[in-house]
Here is the input.
Amino acid sequence: MGLFSRLKKEEVIYEDSDIVAIADAAVVPTAEIKDPVFAQEMLGQTIAFALKGNTIVCPCNGILEVMYPTGHAFAVRRSDGMGILVHVGINTVKLKGKGFKLYAKQGAEVKAGQKLLRIDSELIKEAGYDLTTMLIITEQVHEGEKISFTCGNQVEKGQVIHSSKA
Here is the structure.
């Protein structure tokens, strides 16, 4: 055991009501997303990110209900019933998994901040795809409720961007 084994980062414990930033990124105004389905929030309330790194983490504690084999999208269900979809890039499903490495399987119990994907952003950009990544609240705990995201223009992966804690 060397010096670096003692410098291991302490694991952060998140509340079940927390939603965290999925990556190091700049926040993109929803209206500026270059896909009308996401820009018009047709799937649900949306916050978008211009990724700065290659790691995508889980936005909340819950069950990984959907993990597309292509890695371009996944959905997590919180214990309170909230559904959250993460969609990496626009039309990236056409890459058929190229440029995506998965770290969790559908059906797994997952934690906020847990690494779920690694992407090859250079490969994806060189293939001509927009890497704007969306976090969508597909199902609310209380119908009609609007989530208030508390973040500035820049976020770090694992940063709490919403908490329902009273």
User: Anything to note?
Assistant: Residues 8 and 61 are 22 Å apart (CA to CA). The radius of gyration is 16 Å. The mean pLDDT is 92.
